[in-house]
Fold:
Amino acid sequence: MKVIFKILLASLAIFSGCKPSPGADVLINQKASLPESFKLSELHQKVITSFINNRKHTTSILYGNNQAYAAANGGTSIRSSGQSFTLVTWQQQDDAHWFGARIPGDLISAETLHLADSCSRIIYHYQKFKGKELAKLADTTGNAARVKFILSQQASIMP
Amino acid sequence: MKKFMFIAASAIIIVLISLQFFRPEISHPPVTGDLQAPTNVKAILVRACYDCHSNQTNLRWYDQVQPVYWQVAEHVRQGRKGLNFSNWDKLSPMDRKGKLWEAVNQIEQGAMPIKSYAFVHTDAKVSKQDLEVLKNYLIGMVHETPDDTAKIHARNKQLQAKTNQTQQNLPESLNGITYIPDYNNWQVISTSDRFDNGTMRVIYGNDVAVKAVKEHHINPWPNGTIFAKAAWDKLEDKQGNVTTGAFKQVEFMIKDNVKYRTTNGWGFARFKTPKLKPYGKDGMFTTECINCHKPMKDNDFVFTFPIKN
Structure:
């Protein structure tokens, strides 16, 4: 009797595919997560657009505060003080849950851009943060091109 | 004791024999247009899928013994409903592609062929090599065209329409879920580059979802969690830069394990194009959602690996 019971139990385990559910540590995309210190979610910026670079296999999201979002969606290139942007870029990785999709992998960088007014001129405050810990980058080479690049992005069509 | 065992065994045998006379029907409707694929690809699909996903069901003697036959008949009925390679001609080229990618994903995630079926029909098992053959076939179907004029035109058309768009009442999906316009104020929990169907997506999560990710309480996700997944055409230029093209759709998943008990605790909705046309012919469109999400049953039916912001 005991043997029968054991066989039944074993077959039940086989058929129900008895394995523990994956925990949050496996399911959360740790590689792509931003360090807590960056506090991106507390900025409450909106997605202006997202883009991919098929040569570098990177994926990016451009966020903006309400003023930046409104300007980008208005289709105007009017730049005024108070507009704030954040551009986050990841290396892509294959999606383990869907063959046919690539999702964010290692965090590459975050870039912030604030537009401020000084003596009736717009000043562009740009800062780049690099790597998993988003360390502040002191090197300012190429900053002007990045500012231009961020400001040239068109908003995604939203209903 | 011995006598009791004898009576019990006889009763079971009598019941089993009488059960053989109750037989659900498994029909064999005509094949209107069979799947066309390279021989090696087709051979794998025929072997692993066709018993339930075509009109060419090949029953072995052991499939026809009751009470197993009931289960077999139900598998065939459900299988054909979800995907039928014998009526391949009835699908649009895009739907055919979509079905194939979904099928291969179901195999890769171990959801198909159904475990109990593969246990008995050992020849239906898809080996690692078989899976590679299927995946290579699909990869061969991916064509990313730079400066795709049709896609550029579709985007421009939507942009023009946007300027004279008037605010309308919020649309409702066929299972009674009202469109949630607020999602573009939510945080992003991931993006997805869907090279299988040429779209790119942003997955938003409401406050409940974002908090759940921060606190690592995502399996199961708490009630009140809502995801919104917005999709656009991928527009690629000659330098490999891909930007968002025409807006395709937004999909919602709303967690409420009481209200949406019958759909695994999630309320599903999909609104197509900037006009937000509710998806499906009737409320039963959710069967499609459930079937596709089934391989994720150990992850509370969620595909997305959320990012902490």
Summary: Chain B touches chain A through 67 residues (CB under 8 Å). The two ends of chain B are 68 Å apart (CA to CA). The mean pLDDT of chain B is 91. Residues 253 and 268 of chain B are 5 Å apart (CA to CA).
